[in-house]
Fold this protein.
Amino acid sequence: AEYMGDDYNKILVQSIADRFAEAAAEWVHAKVRRELWGYARDESLDQADLLRVKYQGIRPAPGYPSNPDHKEKTLLWSLLDVEARIGAKLTESNSMWPAASVSALIFAHPESRYFAVGKVDRDQVTAYAGRTGLAVAEQERWLGEVLAYDP
């Protein structure tokens, strides 16, 4: 909803919506760990443990340091038929709409750890572009912030 010039309340509602989306993602991840996949049935973590990532596995999201390529969301959207199932859409830049949306991959392996992809060189981008089927220039556009060179 638009707030007819009331920027304060618009930002407040958007912030609350973002927090609800993140809380829902955390709840779903806990449900997967404890019930659906059941690899952590007896898990009992408090807020501090959740923030310290004391649970088994990880849930990296496209666009974050361990998975900087936002383009991967298009594959997720296609495989899961996201737009038809829940109405969430991707913009031209692969931002999610509504903005208070989250997506991630869940890895349950006990040795899974979060990491950050460092800067990548031209040879790495060329090899990655070959695997994704994109032209090198297009791949560079999607990986802009992690490039170790000026394209």
Q: What stands out?
A: The longest strand covers residues 89-90.
